[in-house]
């Protein structure tokens, strides 16, 4: 017979966005790989419901790999953003080109 999961839901987790501690039952799982249904070998982070509602829920294929690629030790925020925007334009074209095609 299966045991109930009531014990799991009494656990406290910390929202990775705002730092608030909430009950696991009051949180949403966040999977940086974008596929929370594939659970094998993963540890999930959590978001409170308010922060979860504020997320963009659009597909993010290739995003994690792109971020890792442009991230370098010691880069400040401005340098990181410059590398990120350059890599996005290189892969997908500029925002102006995309808007003209629409």
Automatic annotation (TrEMBL):
Domain of life: Archaea
Classification via InterPro entries: DUF7562
Protein name: Small CPxCG-related zinc finger protein
Organism the protein comes from: Halopelagius fulvigenes
Biological classification of the source: Archaea, Methanobacteriati, Methanobacteriota, Stenosarchaea group, Halobacteria
